[in-house]
Amino acid sequence: MTTRHSRVLLAKIDLLLPRLAETSQELWNSPRLRELYPEYLCMLHTAIRSTVPLMECALEEAENRAADDPAAEVLVTYLTRHIREEQGHDEWLRQDLEALGHDPQEPLRRVPAASVANLVGAQYYWIRHYHPACLLGHIAVLEGNPPSPHLVDELMRRTGFPRGGFRTLERHAALDVKHRDEILRTIDGMPLTHDLATAVGLSALHSVDAADAALRAVLASRRAPALATTQA
Hints:
By secondary structure, the chain is an all-alpha fold. The chain has eleven helices and no strands. The protein is 73% helix and 0% strand. The longest helix has 26 residues, at 194-219. 39% of the residues are buried. It holds the Pfam family Haem_oxygenas_2.
């Protein structure tokens, strides 16, 4: 059983989660899915490549506060471990693109979408200018709703793409179950004040809303046919 802080956080997330789930289903059921999936991978890369730098930023802030901030002290322990677990996930996405016959350098050439900058950039503000524990709300959203284990098989059927193009989704379907439980235990083991718990919730709600906007941008994309490929 979860204690009060995680229960309240999950209840807040659940207020907006149906909209994000609906947008996700719109993407997976799109008649343009074969065109849009590489675009989705490029968008996801621009977000996921910020995961470790965000946590390193939060860890630095937490270490600076840990001597007289019990919440920051707990955060240092969690982030030190979790940073190691998240290393290299952006490279998985580039490998997925390459498995589809697309140029794995494409996400690095793209100007990141404003929706992704909004998703990620707000976290830097809250980390630097309020409290690094705010990042826990962001992590709880991104790792708290693992993909279905059956999703990859369904997407392979709908797109005709090989399994190698879905390794990131397949790995996160397993990894994020563990990470979801870990983040909730961390939140419940942290001495959060009322204001800090509120800020973690605000971070989570923002992340749901911004992630939905990022997916909407993929759905609206008309660049998919021009995505560079490595094939002649």
